[in-house]
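Q: What residues go here?
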């Protein structure tokens, strides 16, 4: 009996999990695109997909923590730009050679600071998270354009290699970064007190307060995690492209939110795991690539992502109503 209960803890295919359905969709999608264009399943194209989805996957992991509390962080796309610009600026200081780990740490701390600002305004001041992060999105997007009126080139080859290098010539290092970060956040949410608090707050914030959970502190740290992971995405983007500009991350929050909701993280909070988010990241990244290979116009690719987001929100809404009916 104990063995069965232990195994069940690691079972990602539970009845209320969207993971099995997502895996079936992913398999059908691979088959569909490979029939239309055999290049879709080529090693080079798979490497490209895995390399490109790393940024989205990392940011989705961080955003998931905020959404699990029943809040939103729309400022992550401007955080990407700020982190990338900070990295580029530090590498372009005349006569100064700042170590790469220090540059990366400063950029991540900047993202965490933006998250802390959001967390303070939401949890302490009490401003709605959508309003708060829309405001900080505009503020930091404006700052990004102000400090990068033109593209800032990065010539530090070891830094560029961080986002472009492959392990065993086939596995993008950026993909491995994503897996590590997702695993860390996954185990943090599943096996720590902080993770249990996050789910409790999202499920019922009033009950969480009555149970003695520090809701403000936990929401505050959730936003810090979101800001830090968005900054990591910005650092990786700067590394992969070898430059930074104010437009970095523009419109990216739409894609990240699609991954989060499609992955089964409930917009009502308190439900979902990062396993589904990981599979959803593969699906969204692979769809974009597949549509490009079969020459679908860019505007239709974006429309397709919009359709996916609406369907995912609709499904989430149905699941929330069903749970409420079962409770009643």
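A:
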């Amino acid at each position: 009996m104990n063995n069965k209960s232990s195994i069940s803890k690691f079972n990602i295919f539970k009845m209320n999990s969207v993971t099995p359905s997502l895996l079936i969709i992913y398999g059908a999608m691979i088959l569909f695109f490979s029939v239309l264009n055999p290049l879709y399943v080529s090693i080079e194209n798979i490497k490209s997909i895995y390399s490109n989805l790393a940024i989205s996957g990392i940011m989705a992991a961080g955003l998931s923590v905020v959404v699990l509390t029943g809040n939103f962080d729309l400022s992550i796309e401007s955080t990407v730009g700020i982190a990338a610009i900070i990295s580029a600026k530090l590498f372009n200081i005349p006569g100064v050679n700042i170590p790469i780990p220090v540059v990366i740490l400063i950029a991540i701390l900047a993202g965490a600071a933006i998250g802390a600002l959001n967390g303070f305004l939401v949890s302490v001041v009490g401003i709605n998270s959508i309003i708060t992060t829309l405001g900080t999105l505009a503020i930091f997007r404006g700052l990004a354009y102000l400090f990068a009126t033109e593209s800032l080139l990065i010539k530090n080859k070891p830094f560029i290699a961080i986002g472009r290098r492959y392990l065993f010539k086939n596995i993008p290092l950026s993909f491995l970064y994503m897996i590590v970060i997702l695993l860390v956040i996954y185990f943090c949410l599943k096996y720590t007190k902080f993770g249990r608090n996050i789910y409790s707050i999202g499920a019922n914030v009033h009950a969480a307060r009555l149970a003695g959970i520090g809701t403000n502190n936990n929401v505050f740290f959730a936003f810090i995690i979101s800001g830090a992971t968005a900054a990591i995405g910005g650092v990786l983007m700067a590394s992969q492209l070898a430059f930074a500009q104010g437009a970095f991350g523009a419109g990216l929050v739409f894609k990240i939110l699609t991954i989060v909701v499609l992955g089964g993280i409930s917009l009502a909070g308190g439900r979902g795991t990062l396993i589904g988010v990981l599979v959803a990241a593969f699906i969204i990244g692979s769809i974009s690539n597949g549509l490009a290979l079969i020459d679908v116009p860019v505007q239709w690719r974006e429309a397709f992502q919009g359709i996916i987001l609406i369907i995912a929100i609709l499904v989430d809404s149905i699941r929330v109503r069903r749970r409420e009916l079962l409770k009643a």
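A: Context that may help when evaluating the design: The CA atoms of residues 121 and 127 lie 6 Å apart. The chain is about 75% helix and 0% strand.
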